[in-house]
Design goal:
single chain, 247 residues, alpha/beta, Ubiquitin-like (UB roll), Rossmann fold, 9-stranded mixed beta sheet, 4-stranded mixed beta sheet, 6 helices, 13 strands, 26% strand
Amino acid sequence: MGLNKEFLPTRSRYLVITRDYLLPLLFIIFGLFLWWLSFFSPAFTLQNIICQLDYEPCTGENLLAELAKYQGTNLFRLDGPALSARLTSADFTLRQAEIRKILPHTLALSLQSVYPTVAAKLETEATWIIFDEQFRVIGTRTVDPNVPTLTASSLTNLVVGSAPQDQTLLDALKLTRALSAAIPNIQGIKIVDSLIYLSLPDYRQAIMSTELPQATQIQSLQAVLANATILSGISTIDVRFSQPVLR
């Protein structure tokens, strides 16, 4: 008995994709699209950089120039920990760099300076110049850094990353830190010629001299400050003499 050729199965001239193959294929295509969209498309390129140093806008030219190199980088391909390590290793004034990616185009950086150990300011201004433990300039602050502070008559030729070239200023900063370590209650120090004026709590003032042995003057001042009875009614303590002058 012969078979009717009209009912014999024949190979189709068209590609037929069944549901069993279609869904996996669509998932693969969609995954490839997401991979391209995330890592290679312009949809997530870096266009905006928000940078704060000690909660104030970053102003350092070198820092801003370094960050500008990352403009146009894909955010997903940007290695945050590597960037943080690069910034802190390249700039001694930075001790911490926190990096946060804000999709689709923004990178936020929160930078923290190394801890200052001493500061200097002009008497007529409310801007502090802060220094590290090696007396290198860290930067400026508009908020009291809460470290021993020298009030100076002039602050010129100071460069971030370098110690003052003015030996007089450098010596004054060293003296400020040494005095604050010996007398913790000092609120401020001002040096005028050979005189040292120390601002103390309760609106008191102490007077010392740069031309006399510091250790002797410090011991005299410590002895006076330790005696609450002596301090009663006293506003000025002058330790330039063999016996402190109180008035």
